[in-house]
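In response to the reviewer comment on reproducibility (Comment 2.3), we provide here a single inverse folding case reported in full, input and output, so that an independent group could reproduce the run without further information from us. The structure tokens appear first.
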């Protein structure tokens, strides 16, 4: 029995090889893997010695040889194949353990294109694909996490066709993901990220109990390793809808840096947000915006939840709490709440991936775009187009309102007062309807909007939203501008003594 071992990730390879030798395998190996095995007194035959063909071109060619690929690919049940293999002295390679040059780590570490090119594996994918194609006879491994199970199965005569089939699928997933990463990188480097083809490749984290509805299957995937390594479940089973709500809540709560912010989300839209001097006060103020909608919602805390905050959160039913961390005492208290689900990511403050591109599924395909974000200086550089100039405190509220608006479903308006959201209208077909809806909800909640500021993610097409805002005492407004009726909007703001700022940048979220 012959096993071919050639790995970039050498985690566990010495122990794995030693066990294979103990099971009667002869080892074929190359380069760095061969050196490591030799340093650990594990007998292995150099591929170059076996093929009688030396490594060439600084290692670019070493396993691309008929004695390697013939040993993997020949059909054991085909008499002609067996005869041909015997004629050319081709070993029966029944186990292939290969993982690929670290392309991802290389592009994250350097922009040196020559080095990047040299970290595109050729022989590795060829061997993996060959072994996967011939899975009826060959066991292929591409991940050190599978070593233990493989050894157990080999020791217990459980190297079944079904198992090899499972490993075959993992192998093709491995090479497909690798090629997708390379193609996307090259398009990003040379075609601005929008080439003739674009590939979306994710790694399964876990299945969800169902999708958006009970009759739909569901699962969630990751691009890198964030969810499997940084996102931790402390209590409860995460659902498909939980994940989309958590995404919305954490994106907003973590948008303001290392500040004690709290965001409450229901059905992917914020119904509460605040930044106060403590996380507890931030939560209390965020809840005031719409405590009715917050029931059964998702709370994102940009910091560590202590017992005092946990007890405050425990006063109503919250389905999901996600925080940078949760103290031992707070966790013990929250674990007594039967239905709450608890998740952490970050450590001290919420940590969340910031993908460079965004896509949405449409029937028959998807639309792809650069990810949207509000630039750090976008509000500071906004043009004051009114006679009235906003105060420093109003500018701070405008910045909060504007950032939140960029993360709320369009058409939307966001009202903020003293660093807390006091009203929000979202997902409306007209902006005036969003403005009226937000005000109506604030009135129902008994909130005083006098002195608050207003942000819109796109321009006001008419002055009607400004007229509606003045009725409740809005003091300052920020919007992109760009309407053919901008002058009417500016004149209306001046009439009511409002400060009005144009940013020149729209932030639709559909």
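Designed residues, in position order:
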């Amino acid at each position: 029995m012959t096993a071919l071992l050639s790995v970039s990730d050498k985690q566990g390879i010495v122990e794995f090889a030693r066990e294979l030798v103990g099971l009667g395998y002869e080892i074929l190996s190359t380069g760095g893997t061969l050196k490591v095995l030799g340093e650990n007194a594990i007998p292995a035959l150099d591929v170059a010695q076996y093929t009688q063909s030396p490594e060439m071109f600084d290692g670019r060619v070493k396993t691309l040889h008929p004695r390697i690929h013939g040993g993997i690919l020949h059909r054991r049940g085909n008499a002609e194949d067996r005869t041909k293999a015997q004629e050319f002295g081709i070993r029966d390679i029944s186990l292939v353990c290969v993982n690929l040059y670290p392309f991802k780590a290389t592009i994250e570490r350097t922009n040196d294109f020559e080095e990047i090119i040299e970290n595109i594996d050729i022989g590795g994918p060829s061997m993996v694909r060959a072994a996967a194609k011939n899975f009826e006879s060959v066991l292929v491994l591409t991940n050190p996490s599978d070593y233990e199970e493989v050894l157990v199965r080999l020791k217990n005569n459980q190297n079944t066709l079904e198992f090899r089939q499972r490993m075959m699928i993992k192998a093709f997933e491995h090479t497909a993901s690798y090629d997708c990463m390379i193609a996307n990188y090259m398009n990003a480097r040379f075609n601005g990220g929008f080439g003739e083809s674009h590939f979306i490749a994710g790694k399964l984290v876990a299945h969800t109990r169902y999708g958006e509805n009970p009759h739909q299957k569901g699962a969630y995937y990751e691009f890198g390793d964030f969810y499997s390594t940084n996102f931790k479940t402390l209590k409860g089973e995460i659902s498909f809808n939980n994940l989309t709500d958590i995404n919305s809540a954490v994106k907003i709560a973590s948008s303001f840096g290392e500040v004690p912010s709290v965001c409450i989300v229901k059905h992917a839209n914020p119904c509460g947000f605040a930044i106060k001097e403590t996380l507890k006060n931030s939560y209390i103020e965020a809840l005031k915006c719409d405590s009715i909608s917050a029931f059964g919602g998702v709370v994102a805390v940009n910091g560590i939840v202590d017992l005092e905050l946990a007890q405050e959160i425990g006063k109503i039913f919250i389905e999901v709490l996600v925080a940078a961390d949760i103290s031992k005492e707070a966790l013990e208290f929250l674990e007594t709440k039967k239905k709450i689900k608890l998740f952490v990511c970050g450590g001290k403050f919420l940590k969340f991936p910031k993908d460079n591109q965004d896509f949405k599924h449409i029937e028959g395909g998807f639309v792809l775009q650069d990810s949207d974000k509000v630039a750090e200086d976008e509000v500071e550089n906004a043009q004051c187009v009114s006679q009235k100039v906003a105060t420093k405190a109003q500018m701070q509220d405008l910045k909060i309102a504007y950032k939140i608006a960029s993360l709320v479903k369009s058409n939307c308006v966001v009202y903020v007062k003293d660093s807390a959201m006091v009203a929000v209208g979202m997902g409306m077909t007209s902006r005036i309807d969003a403005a009226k809806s937000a005000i109506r909800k604030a009135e129902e909640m008994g909130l005083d909007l006098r002195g608050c500021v207003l942000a819109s993610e796109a321009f006001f097409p008419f002055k009607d939203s400004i007229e509606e805002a003045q009725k409740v005492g809005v003091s300052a407004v920020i919007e992109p501008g760009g309407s053919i009726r901008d002058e009417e909007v500016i004149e209306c703001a001046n009439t009511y003594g409002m400060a009005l700022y144009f940013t020149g940048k729209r932030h639709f979220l559909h």
